[in-house]
Amino acid sequence: MTARVSIGVSLKMYFGHSDARRWFDRVAELVAGHPAVADGRVEFFVIPTYLQVLPAVEAFAGTRTLVGAQDVAAWDRGAYTGEVGAPELAEVGVRVAEVGHAERRRLFGETDTDVAAKVETSLRSGITPVVCIGEADRVDAAAAADATAVQLCAALVGAPAGRVIVAYEPVWAIGGPEPAPVAHIATVAERLRAELDTLEDRDGSTVIYGGSAGPGLLARLGHSVDGLFLGRFAHDPDALAGVLDEASALADARSDAHSANTAVAS
Predict the structure, then answer these.
(1) How much is the average pLDDT of 7-35?
(2) N or C terminus of the chain: which is more exposed, having fewer CB within 10 Å?
(3) Sorted alphabetically, which PANTHER family does this protein's record hold (predicted)?
(4) Pick the catalytic residue: 34, 43, 98, 101?
(5) pLDDT digits over 135-175, tens only?
(6) pTM metric for this prediction
(7) Which CATH number fits domain 5-265: 1.25.40.10, 3.30.300.20, 3.20.20.70, 3.90.230.10?
(8) Is residue 200 among the annotated active site residues?
C-alpha cells in the first residue's frame, strides 16, 4: 500500500463538446490550487470522450492531471475502421486508458481476451491501463473476491511490465442509488491487492473503487482502497472538490501509518 491516493473521473458520453470544455476549465482551476494534487499526494486523472481528449490535454497542461481515454484498440495500427490505437493516444498526451468496463462488455461483447489485448497494447505504449473488473450479480463478498481475482488474472495474461490501476466496479452497483457496502468493498479490494502482490513487475499498482462512488464514501472506506473512480457525482466540480479533500486526508493518514510502521520495524 502506497501513501498516494488516486481519484479518477470518467465522463462517459454525458457531456457535449462545449460542456466538457467548460468542465475542464473549472476543474483545471480546482486541481491547480489543490495542495494535495499539486504536490502529488493525490493522483488525479480525467477520462473524456475521444473528441474531448485534445481539449482536455490543453486545459490541464501545467497541472499534474493525467488525461485518459475511455477505450483503446486491441491493435497498434492498421485497417481497423473506427478504432484508436494506443500509440496515437500516447502521442497526443494520453496517460491512462479505461479498459474492460462493464458497459463495453455488455453493449459491445468484449471478452476477457479482448481486455487482455488492450491491456497489453496500452502498457507497450507507456499508457497505464485502468482495468475495470467486477462481479455481474450481487453475491457475497467472498464469492465476489473470487470472481474478480479471476478477471484480474485474465486481464493481465501476457501483459508486459508496468503499473496498472485496478478499478473494482461491481456491475450491480454501476448507476445505482448506492455504492456497494463498505465491508464488501474492503473484502474484494484486499483480495485484489493480494493478487497484485503475487505478480512481478507491477510496482505502484493500485486498487480503486467505482460503482456509484461519490462524496463521503472514501472517508468511510479509509485504508480499504487506494482511491475512487467517479462518474456522474463528479459532474459537479464542488462535489469533486469534496472528494479531493477526502483523498488528501486519507493520503496524510496513510503516510503517517507508513512512517509509524517504519519506525517500529527499525
Answers:
(1) 98
(2) C
(3) TRIOSEPHOSPHATE ISOMERASE
(4) 101
(5) 999 999 999 999 999 999 999 999 999 999 999 999 999 98
(6) 0.95
(7) 3.20.20.70
(8) no
